[in-house]
Amino acid sequence: MNKNIKQDYQKKIDELKKHNKFYYENSSPVISDKEYDKLKRQILDLEKEHIYLKSNFSPSKNVGFKPSKNFAKYKHREKMLSLSNAFDEEDLINFEKKIFNFLNEKAYLNYSVEPKIDGISASLTYKNGDLIYGVSRGDGKEGEIITENLKTIKDIPHKVRNSNFPKDIEIRGEVYINKDDFQKIKENFANPRNAASGSLRQKDSKETSKIPLKFIAYTFGFISENKFKNQSDFLKELKSWGFLTSEHNEVIKSINELVYFHQQFEKKRFDLKYDIDGLVYKVNNIQLQRRLGFTSNAPRWAIAHKFSADHAYSEILNIDIQVGRTGALTPVAKVKPVNIGGVVVSNATLHNEDEILRKDIRIGDTVKIERAGDVIPHVLEVDLKKRKEKLSKFIFPTKCPSCGSKTEKEYNKITKKFDAVRRCINESFACEKIAIERIKHFISKDAINIDGLGKKGCRKILGFKFYKISSRYIQFELSKNILP
Ligand code: IVH
């Protein structure tokens, strides 16, 4: 047994435990979803390669995190498991192959296709139509009793009186926040899912009720009588019983069609009222689901087809022109907010005038945005198929939007070409925006690095005063604020 490998494995497990705590217990992750998934993947790869590596905290054994001590616990009568992920067609073909192998026949499969809502799952126990318990997922085996908090959500019925409602049932679904509502509270949370998770786990349900949480139902756990042939029939019943279900649920018959549906859906995801991070495909026939059963942490009959974590589509609402320290005019697309790998993006750079021309980017276009690593999100391309009629070409301003001066593109004598970047030719302090950016740069980490005063803090100090005053006054105010 290699000691280094074991140490490396244990280090990764400890790291994962730490991040699980940040995510599930404190509801405030410190790394991105992508980094978290990478860590999980590394652990699973190590286990695959070195079969002697084992831990009770391995992601192959665990979903979620042990319930917090703040709430009483509830043992789920049917485990609340996770879903395996697919990223491309090949993964889906393999998923179906495994189903055929397990069944030992090539069955004709229909899939119930549902958006994978990026929220927090919850389980609601109804006995004789009354909501008795509302529980979080916890570690999948035991959850936290958060009934009072869940009862503050208007989409959750407290009583169901339909004659065909099972006598004893755990209804499961996702608690989430609509994107519009998130915009109003976004200062306090990284993304809508954290907001949902944080508010659900408040000790006082009055706090929960202040956040406009929603609940979409999509499956059942324990069920006393199951008369439903298909998942799609169950979804229809959920609606008739008064639960909110997704308006985007579909039944689809082949992998080819699933892939096509996914491609189309990815392009309209930004227009949905809530965040989704993929689509869930479930074998529609419930009897087949029963036969297929579960592996240790996921059903064999369902898979999540994720959207990319580094790009997404959105619509350009406007194009702002920003003036930089060197006078460069940088066009920035204001887009409908879209979640890319756990970060809500509403601005994407268009680089410069030439890029806009070359890609023929127009306000109102649907565009593909990339956000990879720490790089500023940028517009990759226009989806021309989605272009609405009569969108006018974007006219790049020839005057500086800050000071109104002339702008120029420098001529490069060597390449015999004009520079791609247009610049304001007004000298520094005479153009307010250039002045602000220069001073921001001067005090920032990249220059004299005033301790504790980053670009953000600097913006706070400069903020409101700048727009009205002259250049001398700027310097005076600055020194008064910064120097002791
Ligand atoms: S079914 C046993 N359907 O995704 C399978 N899950 O990664 C139970 N989710 O824990 C899940 N939308 O929180 C299912 N339409 C949907 C879903 C969905 C979102 C979440 C859920 C689950 C996680 C799995």
Summarize the structure in words.
The protein is globular, with a radius of gyration of 27 Å. Helices cover 31% and strands 26% of the residues. It has 4 domains: 1-62, Helix hairpin bin (Helix Hairpins), CATH 1.10.287; 65-306, DNA ligase/mRNA capping enzyme (D-amino Acid Aminotransferase, Chain A, domain 1), CATH 3.30.470; 312-425, OB fold (Dihydrolipoamide Acetyltransferase, E2P) (Beta Barrel), CATH 2.40.50.140; 427-484, no CATH class. It has helices at 3-25, 33-49, 89-103, 147-151, 179-185, 192-200, 205-209, 231-240, 255-266, 286-292, 353-359, 432-443, 455-462, 471-482; strands spanning 73-75, 84-86, 111-117, 120-127, 130-136, 142-144, 168-177, 213-223, 250-252, 276-283, 302-306, 311-323, 329-340, 343-349, 366-370, 378-382, 407-412, 417-424. The model is unreliable at 463-484 (pLDDT under 50). The chain starts with a helix and ends with a helix. The longest helix has 23 residues, at 3-25. It is of the alpha+beta class. It contains 14 helices and 18 strands. The strands form 5 sheets. Strands 2-11-10-3-9 form a 5-stranded mixed β-sheet. Strands 14-13-12-15-16 form a 5-stranded antiparallel β-sheet. Residues 81-83, 114, 116-117, 121, 174, 218-219, 280, 299, 302, 304 line the site of 2-(butylsulfanyl)adenosine (IVH).
Provide the descriptors you would attach to this structure in a database record.
binds 2-(butylsulfanyl)adenosine; disordered C terminus; single chain; globular; five-stranded antiparallel beta sheet; five-stranded mixed beta sheet; 18 strands; D-amino Acid Aminotransferase, Chain A, domain 1; 484 residues; OB fold (Dihydrolipoamide Acetyltransferase, E2P); 26% strand; 4 domains; Helix Hairpins; alpha+beta
